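Thread: quick sanity check before group meeting

JM: Hey all, I'm pulling together slides for Thursday and realized we never actually wrote out the predicted structure for the chain we discussed last week. Dropping the sequence here so it's in one place. If anyone has concerns about the input, flag it before I start.
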Amino acid sequence: MTTGNTYKVVALVGTSPEGIDRAIENAINRAGQTLRGIDWSEVKEIRGQVEEGKVAWYQVKVGIGFRVLEPEDLHKE
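JM (edit): ok, ran it. Output follows.
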């Protein structure tokens, strides 16, 4: 019997002085360095660090969804 996927979600905050899109990409790219099976992301919050009346840094809290591996997948590279 085939079952559906099960997911774990971690929250990361991506940052960038270049904009919201770049902050999201930074979070996802960083997650991809240590997590396998990333399938989706969800923007949770958007913030900005303000300096001298202007946004200096964009901060985006992102939920990263990745598949929980099956026992037989644990030893695959």
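AS: nice. The two ends are 25 Å apart (CA to CA). The mean pLDDT is 91.
JM: adding both to the slides.
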